[in-house]
Amino acid sequence: ISAQLSDGPLQGKRILVTSGPTHEPIDPVRYIANRSSGAQGAAMARALRDLGAEVVFITGPATVRPPEGVQVVAVETAQQMSEAVEAALPVAAGVFAAAVSDWRVLNASDRKLKKSKDGLPVMEFAENPDILKRVSRMATGRPPLVVGFAAETNDVVEHATAKRLRKGCDWIVANDVSPATGIMGGSENAVVLISEEGAETWPRMGKDDVARQLAERMAVALAQ
Ligand code: CTP
Ligand code: CA
User: Which residues bind CTP (predicted)?
Assistant: First the structure.
């Protein structure tokens, strides 16, 4: 059983976590989504809560349930997630574990598309706001610690290092999700923590253990 520590190292710190996929509507009954279960984000929220943090958990329509003892903000689209993140500021740290849809349907219909009358749908796309990048690059009120995630299938360290610089975040938690690793959909993860100091390869371990170790690292960084 896990409970919020009354004197944990993150006591009094407000931390936001984004999690899960986003759904981007095509019409009132259809949407574009991705395979994120929200497991990594939920594990992060739980681990941060267990160290005493006040967690704002901003989640898309995930398949795993949000942890107890966190403030849950349920959203559907990337735009809603972006607004919820802005409303949650200021925070001591932001953990961006959501699998945000890169695009939304620009010409979404406000009525259900009918196959007979409407023919084949033609979708136009617009790029969604990059939430992690926006927060990382805030001129004022930037959270002192901003952590992003990156699932890659090849050249993990190279891609994730470039991603960290492009986004402007402090850390990127990268993992190799190529089929040979068997990580996708499993309960274990093998991550590389990318920071200003370089790339640190962690041994393969349970996803909850990854979350606990990251939360502990965050507590150390925020204490400095
Ligand atoms: N992210 C975000 N908002 C977006 C897209 C991504 O906040 N619109 C965050 C994710 O939550 C994650 C990090 O950015 O923490 C990296 O996501 P990823 O999809 O790997 O990065 P992209 O810049 O979208 O690059 P790619 O083309 O590889 O998808
Ligand atoms: Ca993306």
Answer: 102, 112, 129-132, 149, 163, 167
